[in-house]
Design goal:
The complex is a heterodimer of chains A (263) and B (311). Helices cover 37% and strands 25% of the residues of chain A. Chain A is of the alpha/beta class and 263 residues long. Chain A folds into two domains: 179 residues, P-loop containing nucleotide triphosphate hydrolases (Rossmann fold); 65 residues, no CATH class. In chain A, the strands form two sheets. A six-stranded mixed β-sheet of chain A has the order 5-6-7-3-8-9, sandwiched between helices. A three-stranded antiparallel β-sheet of chain A has the order 2-1-4, covered by helices on one side. Chain A starts with 7 loop residues before the first strand and ends with a helix. Chain B has 311 residues and is mainly alpha-helical. Chain B folds into two domains: 78 residues, no CATH class; 200 residues, MetI-like fold (Orthogonal Bundle), CATH 1.10.3720. Chain B is elongated and about 90 Å long. The chains are: A alpha/beta (263), B mainly alpha (311). At the A-B interface, β5 and α3 of A face α10 and α11 of B.
């Protein structure tokens, strides 16, 4: 690889994952080959059961593949996890209800033994980044669902991880809040230059956010197609009505349909 | 009908009505009604149960007596089978208000003796319960090896265990408060262990996965996730445990011929046929249990409110 090419953050080849369930083994992932470069925004899209969340969990070392190789920053997922490479955002905000918002954002910093002063600094900075300054003393239940998810993004970014892994983070929110947070997330991505892996089942969301879209199909979970999404860095919400956007959305929809048909 | 209405509509009755309404809304009325019914039933029970003995006494006294005399006699017997509520109230009053609290004749003195071993046993039991639960959550071996014994320990009747524990500890020159506290511990660690186990295992997968992605240590997961998540479970089980600890302390006083404590009071009452004394001790025990559970409940409110509870 030449020195100019972006170094891969994630490279997976021939990944398989088989869950041993009660009656029959279930192949959750089959022959996954994927390379993600630094600074990319890659979405996994597909119907439920296609393994998109499982693949994300394999990357995060929350599941162990049955066969195949995967490396993150040249390390195994386990080593990468120990090196604290992952900021993970779940489907639900998963804030600890007994902690205030600022204490929730400080949680990874406490676990990683950041000095007190630095904890305070980072909490303030990242709450500001997600637009939650002034809500630090509130408890999670006092915030709306969208605000809770923003707090959980601040928590994921607080320790400056290499990778931001997001598992349908806005799936439970209404469309208006979701649009708003999508726009915010793009700004955040531009500011922080993180590599983002984003799991979704919304086509417009995937097209709006991503630089590449991985279309997956179910039973067994596999990659059907990888679609480039070169809409450029500047994406106002109105971009969703442009022909370029609709063309990519159409390709994704076709891919999802084709992936579904040969079950 | 019309003649019945004026008293209700009379001036001033509005006040009485609003008091009634407030009672109804605050749910005090149903509670008071139940209490009133219970007291009536109790007085009736006293008549029935004391009828025979008081009848015999009146007959042997020789003087003529009416049915009303007989009924009144059942409510003021010296050694009633079932003392009437006012007799228990009098006994409570004389044994609390008319003697110094430090005197062995004071109910407060005996209550304190029982309370002290209850509290010591409850504290040890809660600590032990938490430790066991933490150990079991972190070790499959402990789960498999300890859990059956913990459950078995509670199937043995406490009345059978208490004398043995007291005798064994007595042989080791351990007497007084500690053996009773051991019985309280024996009864109170179990609900705490079970409740804490449930609580320590209550964090959902996402909360645990989150810690995993931070590569948090087991101690950090315990301190920052499992223990705080277990707090509501801990308080619920502590309410059960403190009542059980009180029962344990009283039971421990029974087989040992203890001279002090509510258990000793129960025993003395039954030796001398002083049923009012027994009932007074029982009332003291239940008031104490109610207070202890209430205190734990208050502590729960305060702690949970400080940790983000909505209450």
């Amino acid at each position: 690889m030449s020195a100019l090419a972006p170094s891969p953050v994630i490279s997976a080849s021939a990944l398989n994952l088989i869950f041993q369930t009660g009656d029959a083994p279930v192949q959750a992932l089959k022959d996954i080959d994927l390379t993600v470069s630094r600074g990319e925004f890659v979405s996994f899209i597909g119907p439920s059961g296609c393994g998109k969340t499982t693949l994300l969990r394999v990357i995060a070392d929350l599941e162990t593949p049955t066969s195949g190789t995967i490396s993150v920053n040249g390390m195994t997922p386990d080593e990468a996890r120990r090196a604290r490479a992952y900021g993970y955002v779940f489907q639900a905000a998963a804030l600890y209800p007994w902690r205030t918002i600022e204490k929730n954002v400080a949680l990874p910093l406490e676990v990683m033994d950041y000095p007190r002063a630095q904890q305070r600094e980072r909490v303030a900075a990242f709450l500001d980044l997600v637009g939650l300054s002034g809500f630090g003393r509130k408890y999670p239940w006092q915030l709306s669902g969208g605000m809770q998810q923003r707090a959980s993004i601040a928590r994921a970014l607080a320790f400056d991880p290499d990778l931001l892994l997001m598992d349908e983070p806005f799936g439970a929110l209404d469309e208006i809040v979701r649009d708003h947070l999508n726009a915010e997330l793009l700004k955040l991505w531009a500011k922080t230059k993180k590599t983002v892996i984003f799991v979704t089942h919304s086509i417009p969301e995937a097209v709006f956010l991503s630089t590449r879209i991985v279309v997956m199909s179910p039973r067994p979970g596999r990659i059907h197609e990888i679609i480039d999404c070169d809409l450029g860095p500047d994406r106002p919400l109105e971009i969703r009505e442009t022909p370029e956007f609709l063309a990519i959305a159409h390709r994704v929809r076709e891919g999802l349909r084709a992936g579904h048909s040969y079950e | 009908m019309a003649t019945l209405n004026p008293p209700l509509a009379a001036p001033g009755s509005g006040v009485g009505r609003s008091v009634l309404r407030r009672l109804g809304e605050s749910s005090a009325l149903p509670i008071l009604a139940v209490v009133a019914v219970l007291i009536l039933v109790w007085y009736a029970g006293a008549v029935l149960l004391n009828w025979q003995t008081e009848g015999d006494r009146l007959v042997s006294a020789g003087a003529p007596y009416t049915g009303l005399d007989h009924v009144l006699a059942t409510w003021s017997a010296k050694r009633p089978v079932l003392p009437a509520p006012h007799q228990i109230a009098v006994e409570l009053w004389t044994s609390i208000a008319t003697v110094r609290p430090t005197s062995p004749r004071s109910l407060l003195f005996h209550a304190w003796v029982t309370l002290s071993s209850t509290l010591v046993g409850f504290a040890i039991g809660t600590g032990l319960g938490i430790l066991l639960a933490v150990g079991i959550v972190h070790s499959r071996v402990l789960d498999k090896s300890l859990m059956p014994w913990i459950i078995a320990s509670q199937t043995v009747p406490i009345l059978a265990v208490a004398p043995m524990v007291i005798v064994v500890l007595g042989n080791l020159q351990i007497t007084g408060l500690l053996p009773k506290a051991v019985i309280s511990t024996y009864l109170s660690f179990f609900p705490v262990t079970v409740g804490m186990l449930k609580g320590l295992r209550s964090p959902d997968v996402m909360h645990l996965d989150l810690m995993h992605t931070y590569s948090a240590s087991r101690a950090q997961i315990l301190g920052k996730l499992r223990l705080p998540a277990a707090l509501p479970f801990l308080f619920a089980s502590m309410k059960v445990a403190i009542a059980a600890a009180l029962v344990g302390a009283i039971v421990a006083e029974l087989p040992t011929g203890a001279v002090a404590g509510l258990g000793a009071r129960l025993l003395a009452g039954s030796y001398y046929g002083q049923t009012a004394m027994i009932w007074a001790a029982l009332v003291a025990a239940s008031v104490m249990a109610g207070l202890l559970v209430w205190i734990v409940g208050r502590a729960e409110q305060i702690v949970l409110r400080r940790t983000g509870g909505r209450a």
